[in-house]
Amino acid sequence: MLFQARFGLMLMMTVAIGSYCATVRHEEQDNNPKVNPLSELNGDQLEVRDLACVHRQQPTDQYATEDTPFNKEQKTLNEFLSALKSAGELGKMDFVGTCSPETQSSQVSHLVQSVLQKQSGLKGVHATEDIWDADNEGGITLTLTFPKHSLPAGPASVMLLFSVNPVKGDSLRVQFNSQSIHPNTQTVCISESTRFLIVTGGWSHGHIHLKLKTMVETSMDDNRPKLSVSELKEVLMRKVDSSSTMIKPVLLFLSDLEEPRLKHHRIPQDERLPSRTYLFLCELQKFLRDILPQSKSTTPQDDPSAVSLDTLHSLPPLRLGVSSTESLLSGLVNSSTPTVFVFPQRQQGLQTHRVEVTLDSPLLSVLRMRLDEAMAQVKQQEAGRKMIDRLQKLTELSALSPDGEDSEAATKDHKEAQYRSVLLLKALQMVLSNWESERAQRAARADEDGPSASNQCHLQSLSVSLRKFFLEPSRANINNCEGTCGFPLNNANNHAVLLNSHIQSGQPVNRSLCCVPVEYDDLCVIELESETTNISYKTNVVATKCECR
After folding, report:
1. How many domains does the chain have?
2. Domain of 226?
3. Residue 457 resides in a domain
4. Which residues, if any, are the signal sequence (predicted)?
């Protein structure tokens, strides 16, 4: 019998020296907590709200454990390190709750290897309080509170460690789904040999409260009843020795690693977990690839008709960042210029990509408004549920922080969120523009088949294939001019009028009037590199008006 135990895990973390949400048992209290929420993105099952504190309400069923003495809790970390050493010698990882060697999380494996090599960089912070709530719908919520002292002042690779009770008989399979853990879906199995569970999170920093709500699906023997709150609690929180005191989860993080390759707030390049900007860019590339028309060839490089983007005349590139001029930022937000994105050949190249922009208050308001409008237009189309879900993830990952954040970390996060919001706006504008071109092409084909089809000079949609690795989209609509130039000439200049009159009188000419583009739009190219973003404009690419010349 398959049943579901819905387990909502809300993890309140302060990952810097700063204010935090105090519960009724905390001696310290911050009257003005600052929040940078990290949103969860799992469709209809997840609900995320921006909270400065989790206010304790009266649940249907509630359990709270008393604080565990430090010397007993320290034993958990020592046991974990000892088990890691044994695993490194024997090559066995069953104690950590992985379901099989084949499905073992690569991120957990990487962190385990890092811990074995550099134990001095591993630090642990135990939860000071845990609150278990059972709601009327059968859901279970665990709220963990961590102290603000002894936490990393800068970014750190973090993971949540549970010291669990082994499950006799059939194993208990638990699946975590959340955008704030990496990988986003993590499955663990609790069996007779399981002693610990690890849930790896993204690396975070500075004055952040993180609310993580995760749905867990459990599958057990047909004869086993549904787990109650106390039973689930006993599984996930092992008791100290034979006492009644339960071991609270531990927040582990790798920090202060003195290595030659230290960069980005003293975290080694290969130890840092993906930032929200990296996750956003990966999701953005998937979104564009799925929703936009692509070249028929396997890659644009295989298309003999493809034109290299680098051969087009371009204005000097501008770097997008904190030093960007107001005119550049205003142009990106207010303009609907056709746009393409250039991604690195490998997504891993974006793991160090951290770009900030600073928009003044009026421009930021315009950005919010235009984003809302573009979002509404995209949702009106029949894009499919998959695309709407991707769009929701992008929206959450680019969500702007509330006004009033004044700490250094909060300001940094806010600037990065502005950058992601600008990219999302340009991507949505690009999608809407492509859809409009497709509609124009369908309308033009319908007119050609109609009885009153006109052959006068007019603008016609035309798509061409562009060549550059990982260009989204790989095709661009540049339009073209088609039709005859006969009497009467519409919007023609004096030269065209006189030339046409000369031709109509039967006088010989070497060149007849031609239907040609007379006005163009530039093509905005947003090139994403490992640590920077360059904006360049390919001039006179998209025809916007035709006349006879």
Report:
1. 2
2. 7-268
3. no
4. 1-18
